[in-house]
Design a protein that fits this description.
The protein has about 120 residues and is an all-beta fold. Helices cover about 0% and strands about 50% of the residues.
């Protein structure tokens, strides 16, 4: 079972990025997926989650309206489209298996820096 994130980068405020998470080793289309982030010196923060078929989508309050989670079950991949980025979005972004409140598999993380 593995999750591999990619797409993190250094971007200017107001810019955009798209993060990807490739899943393997389990039946991807039967699991909810989420993104969690950790800013420097802070705890984990819930970002977004999607149900197994792009329904039941939820967002954390600080990202609602700017970040969009989606998934492609044919590619075993979940995405996080990030628009209107702010300095406070700087964090290590983790892809996780599970919906809100329960995550049992984590990727290694991809770094997003807004500066």
């Amino acid at each position: 079972v593995q999750l591999v994130e990619s797409g993190g980068d250094l971007v200017q405020p107001g810019g955009s990025l798209r993060l990807s998470c490739a899943a393997s080793g389990f039946t991807f289309n039967t699991h909810a997926m989420s993104w969690i982030r950790q800013a420097p010196g802070k705890g984990l923060e819930y970002v977004a989650s999607t149900g197994s078929d792009n329904t039941n989508i939820y967002y954390g309050a600080s990202v609602k309206g700017r970040l969009t989670i989606s998934r492609d079950n044919a590619k075993n991949t979940v995405y996080l489209q990030m628009n209107s980025l702010k300095s406070e979005d700087t964090a290590l972004y983790y892809c996780t298996r599970g919906g809100r409140g329960f995550w049992d598999v984590w990727g290694q993380g991809t770094q997003v820096t807004v500066s």
